[in-house]
Structures are given as structure tokens and as C-alpha cells.
UniProtKB/TrEMBL annotation:
It comes from the Bacteria. Coiled coil: none annotated. Residues 62-424 form the Amidohydrolase-related domain. Keywords: Hydrolase. GO terms for molecular function: hydrolase activity, acting on carbon-nitrogen (but not peptide) bonds. This is 5-methylthioadenosine/S-adenosylhomocysteine deaminase. Belongs to the metallo-dependent hydrolases superfamily. ATZ/TRZ family. The keyword Nucleotide-binding does not apply.
Length: 465
């Protein structure tokens, strides 16, 4: 006898719940009503107690909570704009010129493309890094794809620039401008919107104590995340120390600029004292392993993400930007973190496949302030779920689903993505927008931007046209 009605049941799944007990079912099912999960159990239990309007048979494939990407720049239309051998300072100045030149149509194209790429790789929620010129437009474009996310205000900073850095005319470093814009995206946080607002400063030494204090107070008052870039490489740590008279995180702690609502990205160049500060503050740390390695960051060699994670600090994973982070794929970021940790510690025991899934789901959910709503498959939470196919050589045979997910299957195994109870990705295509239309918008934007900035592809090998 059935006693529950659902809009959708996903059955016959190798179900990884990531609940408090980290239970998984060799043959499990999950029932969804509206945008929430209403029941989780064995396939037999759900079949016997739930009547569904629609059923998706996972075919024995792995089903898990959607990944959370906790630091993204919406500018993958800039792929190829920077030569692979360019210094990081050259790359950043090109980015600043790009950000200073984008128009609404460019940012819409980049947002749509980014969101489709994230969905295709199993990401169901993102935190944007505060580098959108048109956040309202980007929020609308992101919501159109069906993804969940958090967006901040555009380029908030007030510390003067170094002499060799491109000054962005559309986002001058001004305390008044930054304070006037601060918190503008919090208007979204009524009801249950897909795209919510949070508090974001650019960071990396670009914010005064006064601006940071205002940002933290706003985040604490509204119970949202306060995010910024912090301590990417050794030059950032030394510059902060010269400006502040002590290491940045120690200074922030001494001046009351940290709380459990802080989610700081990169955090590669920390001293032991700063690691202790992070732990005591109860804040979250965002690890962008591929960016650190691809840019050859010296600090990545002695970064303390693993140590912080083992000490109980919330650590999450992020793709960062398309140029440095390679692609918007949290599975890739997790595998890179695992391999780097094992090599650095010369031990397989340093980092496990389970650790990857922990950071990609629950860690990410907590870092964006939504662990009570996402990050696991259990009743009462939003139905943000990824279904993977078994129809791949890499997916056979499934003995340990967590190892299969992390080591072998990769994002190519993703079959269906559900966000907020709705199927938004299926069979290699988005369901809410036309992929071909998005790709055409992205190509058109790329041509406009490259012409505007006088960019040209650079190759070490001869190109025959």
C-alpha cells in the first residue's frame, strides 16, 4: 500500500547519500516532491511506499548529491586569450582589461556558457567571485539554465593599485563606491530563489579594514557568506605583511574581521599562526588546486589545506577561472587535490576518494552557507542530484562507487542532473536553454572581445590556414 505521493522517483541507483552517517545503498531510491527530497531508502522500500508521477531508472548507476563550486569567474569566453607561457601578472592585466571592456551581451554569453559547463560536469550550485560587471543580468542568465548559485556585487575594493597594474575605469578603487554597492545582491534572498545574493569583496590586499568590517557586519547580520580572494601566492602574503605590519589572517583576527561566515578563496600562503587563526574563527577555506598548479604558485608547495581539513576546518573545492583552472569541473579539482596531497606527503593515506566527495558536496555546501539545504541526499533538502551512466568502459564493473566516481568515471559519466527537483541536464544537453544558441552567443562574444582588446592567438607551432 502506498502512503506518499511524489513528483519524481529515481530508482535502481547505487545511491551515495552523504548524510550524517555517510550511508550508501547498493540498490537505492530517492523520492522528490516539488523541489525537495521527501524519502530515501532501498529500492524496495521506496517502491512500496511512494507513488510517483515520473520514475527515472538509474540502471544501477551512481547517484550522488550535486557538486558545489565555491569560487568561479564567469569568463570562459576568454579561453585562449592568454598564451600558456604568459606570466601571471600578464594574465591578470589581460583579465582586468577584459573585465573593463565587457558589455551586457558578453557577460550574458559567458554566464550561460559557464553554467552549462558546470551542469554538464555535475555542479548544481556555485559561488561567483565578485567579478561581474552586470550581476543582475548574470543572475537572470544563470537562473535560466536551472542551476543554483550565489552572486555578489561587482569589483568591490578601495586600496590603491600597484603602479604596473591596469586600472579598471568602470570599477575604480573607491571606498564610497564599494560601500554604496555593498550588499546590493542581497535583495534576491526572499523566498526560495535559485540565485541568491552574498557579500563578496575582491580581496588579495585590495580592501581596507573599514571595507572588510562593513562587509563582515553585513554578512553576519543577513546570515550569508562573506567571500574574497586571499593569500594566493608568496608575493600576496609578503605584500599584505608589508601593508599591515603582520600576516594578513593574524591582522584580521586581531581587528575582529573574521567570523564563521567568512569563506576565503585560495589561502595557499599561510603560516602556522594563520592556520590556527582560521581554525579558531570557524571560517571556510576554498581550495583551487588546479589553478595553483597551472600557474606554478610557489605557495602551493607548502599550502596547508590538507592540514586544515584534518583539523576540522571546512574546506571546499573550486574551479576558479577557465584559463587557470582548466575547466569548470569539481571532479577534476578533487582528483588534482588528491594526487597533489599524496605526492606532497609521499603517502596514499594522505587523501582519500572519500575526502574528494566530502569536499565536493558537504564541504562546498557549508562553505556557501547552505549545508542545511544542500550537500546531501536526505529528506527535507533541495533535490539537487546527479545521476551517472553505467554505459561506459570506465564505469564497469562498479565495486566501490566512491572510487569509481573519483578515479575512473569522470564527468563524461554524467547522464542526468536534477536541480531544485527539475531535470536540467539530460542526455548530454541542457533542458531549459538551447545549447547551440549559447555556443553561438559565446563565439560571437569572443570575436567582439578579441577585436576590442586587439588579442590574437599565439602558438608555438606554425598554423596553416
Amino acid at each position: 500500500m502506498t502512503d506518499m505521493h511524489a513528483d519524481l522517483v529515481v530508482r535502481n541507483a547505487y545511491l551515495i547519500t552523504m548524510n550524517d552517517s555517510r550511508e550508501y545503498f547498493e540498490r537505492g531510491a530517492v523520492a522528490i516532491a516539488g523541489n525537495k527530497i521527501v524519502a530515501v531508502g532501498t529500492d524496495r522500500e521506496i517502491a512500496g511506499s511512494v507513488k510517483a508521477a515520473r520514475v527515472i531508472d538509474a540502471g544501477g548507476g551512481i547517484v550522488h548529491p550535486g557538486f558545489v563550486d565555491t569560487h568561479v569567474h564567469f569568463m570562459n569566453t576568454a579561453r585562449g586569450a592568454i598564451p600558456d607561457s604568459a606570466e601571471t601578472s600578464v594574465m591578470m592585466n589581460t583579465f582586468r582589461r577584459w573585465w573593463d571592456s565587457v558589455e551586457e551581451e558578453d557577460e550574458r554569453a559567458a554566464t550561460l556558457l559557464n553554467c552549462l559547463e558546470m551542469l554538464s560536469n555535475g555542479t548544481t550550485c556555485f559561488l561567483e567571485a565578485g567579478t561581474l560587471q552586470f550581476p543582475d543580468l548574470a543572475a537572470e542568465a544563470a537562473a535560466a539554465t536551472g542551476i543554483r548559485g550565489l552572486i555578489g556585487d561587482p569589483f568591490l575594493w578601495d586600496v590603491p593599485l600597484a603602479g604596473d597594474t591596469h586600472a579598471m575605469t568602470r570599477a575604480p578603487r573607491s571606498r564610497k563606491r564599494s560601500l554604496d554597492l555593498l550588499g546590493g545582491q542581497l535583495k534576491r534572498n526572499k523566498g526560495e530563489p535559485l540565485i541568491r545574493g552574498c557579500v563578496v569583496l575582491f580581496g588579495l590586499g585590495s580592501a581596507s579594514d573599514e571595507l572588510m568590517r562593513a562587509a563582515l557586519a553585513l554578512a553576519d547580520d543577513h546570515h550569508v557568506v562573506f567571500s574574497q580572494h586571499q593569500s594566493f601566492d608568496t608575493h600576496d602574503g609578503s605584500a599584505d605583511e608589508k601593508r599591515l605590519g603582520q600576516r594578513a589572517m593574524c591582522h584580521y583576527a586581531d581587528h575582529g574581521l573574521l567570523s564563521e561566515n567568512c569563506t576565503f578563496s585560495h589561502m595557499n600562503d599561510l603560516t602556522a599562526d594563520e592556520v590556527a587563526v582560521v581554525r579558531q574563527a570557524g571560517m571556510s577555506v576554498v581550495w583551487c588546486p588546479v589553478t595553483s598548479m597551472s600557474l606554478g604558485a610557489e605557495a602551493a608547495q607548502h599550502a596547508h589545506h590538507l592540514e586544515m581539513m584534518r583539523a576540522g576546518v571546512t574546506v571546499s573545492l573550486a574551479s576558479d577561472g577557465a584559463v587557470s583552472g582548466c575547466r569548470y569541473d569539481i571532479g577534476l579539482q578533487g582528483l588534482a587535490a588528491l594526487l597533489a596531497s599524496r605526492a606532497k606527503n609521499q603517502s596514499k593515506l594522505a587523501f582519500s576518494a572519500e575526502d574528494v566527495l566530502e569536499l565536493a558536496t558537504r564541504g562546498g555546501a557549508k562553505a556557501v552557507g547552505m549545508l542545511d539545504k544542500i550537500g546531501s541526499i536526505e529528506p527535507g533538502k533541495y533535490a539537487d542530484i546527479v545521476i551517472r551512466t553505467t554505459d561506459l568502459p570506465e564505469a564497469q564493473p562498479i565495486t566501490d562507487p566512491v572510487q569509481a566516481l573519483v578515479y575512473s568515471c569522470g564527468s563524461k559519466s554524467i547522464s542526468t542532473v536534477i536541480v531544485n527537483g527539475e531535470v536540467v541536464w539530460s542526455g548530454g544537453q541542457p533542458t531549459r536553454v538551447e545549447a547551440a544558441m549559447v555556443y553561438d552567443l559565446a563565439r560571437s562574444s569572443r570575436r567582439r572581445m578579441w577585436a576590442k582588446l586587439s588579442l590574437a592567438p599565439e602558438s608555438k607551432w606554425p598554423l596553416v590556414v
